[in-house]
Amino acid sequence: MANSVTANSMTSDKTEPASAANSEEPVVVFEGVSIIFDVKPVIEDISFTVMPGETRIILGPAGCGKSVLMKLANGLLKPDTGTIKVFGQDVTKMSENDLYKLRSRIGMVFQESALFDSLSVEENVAYRLNEEKVPEDEAHKRVVESLRFVELEKAISKFPSELSGGMRRRVSIARALITKPDLILYDSPTGGLDPITSTTIVELVVKQRDVSHTTSLLITHRLQDAFTLATYQFNTETGHMEKLPNNGIVPSTRFLVLNEGRIVFDGSTEELVHSDDPWLKEYLS
Ligand SMILES: Nc1ncnc2c1ncn2[C@@H]1O[C@H](COP(=O)(O)OP(=O)(O)OP(=O)(O)O)[C@@H](O)[C@H]1O
């Protein structure tokens, strides 16, 4: 089988290194991060680390601060206290110019796809390349390659309004992958999709993870998607994901669970499912 993700006994945290990252250094580090909106703390004293090649799944009830946390990681929001390092650089202290450069290494899949309705699929996917003044021929080649990855080459000339929700989400993923990022931030990539379409999107995330070993943060409201990510690997021969044998767990998948702006869990899949915490047990049931 042409796979490089290995099942383990649910105890090791070893991960495959991300292609362009130093495997020794964490990709994302939050230390004592808090942010207050209108006198209300939305993120409170959060600390966690994401290592190269890790897929960090972020769970928690609606409004607990998941999207805010992701915007903090991308430098779109600044915390009131604490430090946030991405690729070793403190994003809380960076100028907009430096943040712009840093973001060329970060792919972002926004909630609800966030495509530009007036642009074609090709223009949407090429957006970042156009900003970086990549020559047209080269940009076109890369758009085709990126759309092929999400199995949507045929939609290249269409407009977002002509696409289904699942197709728009695929375009959004193709747009995030076009710069071959070292970190991908997925904000609810299956939000608002039906279960079958959601599974096709999760399969894409699994494919991206297992083909490129890119570090990622992924918010999901669907526990089923989270556990699929933790227990399935991509088979490049069949072109589909499949469940790991013997109840195996993908070792590079870890969880962060938030509630009311605080971390209530930070650990492996096995630790999560075996947690005795009453709140977590209720949340997972
Ligand atoms: N820019 C902002 N200004 C003021 N309040 C904000 C801002 N962004 C988010 N909030 C508030 O912060 C809280 C957390 O929002 P966030 O979007 O992070 O939640 P979430 O966990 O992602 O929710 P959901 O699962 O519903 O997407 C919410 O109460 C929200 O109203």
UniProtKB/TrEMBL annotation:
Check the record and name the InterPro entries matching this protein. Answer: AAA+_ATPase, ABC_transporter-like_ATP-bd, ABC_transporter-like_CS, P-loop_NTPase
- Indicate, by first and last residue, each region the UniProt record lists as having compositional bias (Polar residues): 1-12
Q: What is this protein called?
A: Phospholipid/cholesterol/gamma-HCH transport system ATP-binding protein
Please state every residue range assigned to the domain named ABC transporter. 28-285
Organism, as annotated? Granulicella aggregans
The protein's matches in Pfam families, at most eight in alphabetical order, are given as:
ABC_tran
Q: Which UniProt keywords apply?
A: ATP-binding, Nucleotide-binding, Transport
The keyword ATP-binding belongs to this UniProt entry's keyword annotation: yes
Q: Which GO terms describe its molecular function?
A: ATP binding; ATP hydrolysis activity
The keyword Secreted belongs to this UniProt entry's keyword annotation: no
Region Disordered: start-end pairs: 1-21
Which superkingdom, per the lineage? Bacteria
PANTHER family, A to Z: INTERMEMBRANE PHOSPHOLIPID TRANSPORT SYSTEM ATP-BINDING PROTEIN MLAF (PTHR43023:SF6), PROTEIN TRIGALACTOSYLDIACYLGLYCEROL 3, CHLOROPLASTIC (PTHR43023)
User: Which residues does UniProt call coiled coil?
Assistant: none
